[in-house]
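Shift notes (night). Ran 2-hydroxyacyl-CoA dehydratase while the centrifuge was going.
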Amino acid sequence: MKKIGLTTTVPVEVLITAGYRPVDLNNLFITSDDYSKYIEIAERDGFPKSLCAWIKGIYGACVENGIKEIVGVIEGDCSNTKALAEVLELRGIRVYPFSYPQSHRKEDVEVEIKKFMDIFHVSYEEVEVVRKRLNRIRRLAGELDRLTYSHDKVSGFENHLYQVSLSDFNGDADEFEDELETFIMKVKKRDGSCKKVRLGYIGVPPMTIDIYDFVERFDASFVYNEVQREFAFPRCEVASNIYEQYYDYTYPYDVNYRIKEIKKQIEDRRIDGIVHYTQAFCYRAVENIILKDKLNVPIINIEGDKMNSLDARTKLRLEAFLDMLGDLKEVSCV
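Came back to this:
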């Protein structure tokens, strides 16, 4: 089975139907034992130091691992992906474009997915068979998510790890399904570990993975991972077809559409505060202005760059934020 790289979540059903093994280049980059080498490869090839580390990491992971074909999302994700795609094409890598239309009209989403299916010569009927198969796994991810926020049996990091993996099903849907089923059976036997402060994590998945363990030192836990959960398509069961499913996917569209779902999850999960993670040099940092205005719980914005661990300043800011949330919760209980 041929490998094909992804710059972000795309209609993976189309690629699997066409006989490809999808590889999320983000996951390939950040899970590497020597992730920094991918950034160094990109900078050696001319990528500026003032560019987002994710873009450089994706480039390095693609080149270093011999990925010959990728899908580049040129609308609805990182604004630098178009330039990345052009450089990869220069390196002899075939790039297939995909767009999440800014209009966010159902008919426009349908047009883009039909164009994507035409590129890979697959039919709607074939794709729907695969979608229904993958949605069985996505329902398992929904069960894992409920075990996180309703029963406190799954840590914030475990929740992050399994949901973020649904962007490409770790390259093997059958194997990933078995792994997820086994994990769910295991955690159901755990005692719940309820923390004092319930956090929501919003924004792109972090490079600083240690954030999950760090907050737990202060009697806090993440019970919501926004974008990771969207990768798992939590509302897939109400979508009657692939067009509706990707129309309902919040991440690629405007921030106000995301906010509607975030507000719902804040209420359903009884969230005390929000950590908004953004990557250095990313336009999404500006969205923090809107998020702070629209969300009705305290929010802190933290920024990552090349490091895969929290720096001292960010730790201090997070500690102060968690202390404040703990104090607010005590006051509200009096």
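The chain has a mean pLDDT of 93. The longest helix spans residues 124-149.
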